[in-house]
Write a structure and sequence with these properties.
single chain, alpha/beta, eight-stranded parallel beta barrel, two-stranded antiparallel sheet, globular
């Protein structure tokens, strides 16, 4: 079973170059598969409480939370390893130009020799969209179109595309991707719409704050959407983060057993779930999670 890690996004720590180097060295030693970066371009002081994963609509952040640009941060982290994959978990794709983003990701794919994955989500903060001058109501349509446009740039030479928001004709993204078919795109979100989007367009599905039972329902929706699109549902890799549903959920054998009845390809853990929120505490959490997985035959 592959293990992905979400580091501690705290001011004074997450952008410390020495801390990043120490973190990546430890992850290499522990044979962790991937390191994930989160994103908000900005956070409004008094945002509308639309955060979908809490009862009060507020994010679980405080004044010490720091979310650096994920692609810049992951590029720096990836340079400290020859093995670890790097991924966004998630980048708010409708807020980006897919043409510019495709070039940035192709560059990172080259620099890492094919170790980059793109986790994408819709986002929920209306104020963030307003500051970027992108209509919040269009985000779903923009998401689908941006995925298709980037895939065109990665797989065609020259590339052409025509959609609702974007069109280009016989252009070259002159930094070719390393990975066949382009950078893998992992669709985040726990809704039916997210599951169906993953089935239609994704290389993976990464739900958040969802029980094993509700996730099983989403997987049925994913499989149906994939089949309708003429795709193999088994080609869409499932990533789960048990700790987003139950704190330190990866250490609960019964909860993990329920998740593992599904075709899970990757288990996520977050550094803040450790007994201590430091690198040695994360190492212990990784080892304890691997012990639980081993006890379940995963």
């Amino acid at each position: 079973m592959k293990i992905g890690v979400i580091p501690l996004f705290r001011r004074g720590i997450v952008c410390d170059p020495d801390w990043i180097a120490e973190l990546v060295a430890m992850l290499d030693e522990e044979d962790v598969e991937s390191l994930w970066g989160v994103e908000h371009v900005l956070v409004a002081e008094n945002y509308k409480p639309n955060y979908p994963y809490s009862a009060d609509g507020r994010m679980p952040t405080d004044e010490l939370t720091s979310m650096p640009d994920p692609l810049a941060w992951l590029t720096f982290a990836a340079a400290h390893s020859r093995r670890i994959k790097v991924a966004t978990g998630v980048l708010i794709l409708p807020q980006y130009s897919p043409v510019q983003l495709a070039k940035r990701l192709a560059t990172l794919d080259q620099l890492t020799r094919g170790r980059v994955m793109l986790g994408v989500g819709l986002g929920w903060q209306e104020e963030e969209y307003a500051a970027l001058n992108i209509p919040f109501a269009e985000r779903g349509r923009r998401m689908d179109e941006n995925i298709r446009a980037m895939r065109a740039l990665w797989t065609q030479s020259p590339a052409s595309f025509e959609g609702e928001f974007l069109r280009f004709d016989r252009v070259f993204c002159d930094v070719p991707v390393v990975q066949p078919g382009g950078v893998p795109i992992i669709v985040g979100g726990s809704t039916s719409a997210a599951a169906r989007r993953a089935g239609r367009l994704g290389n993976g599905f990464y739900p958040y704050v969802i029980s094993p039972e509700d996730l099983a329902l989403r997987m049925h929706e994913l499989e149906a959407a994939a089949q309708e699109a003429g795709r193999d549902p088994a080609a869409v890799e499932l990533t789960v983060w048990p700790g987003s549903w139950q704190f330190r959920g990866s250490l609960d054998p019964e909860l993990m057993r329920r998740y593992l009845t599904l075709p899970v390809g990757r288990v996520m853990i977050a550094q803040h779930e450790g007994d201590t929120p430091d690198i040695p505490g994360l190492r212990t959490l990784i080892r304890r999670t691997r012990d639980v997985l081993g006890s379940l035959g995963a």
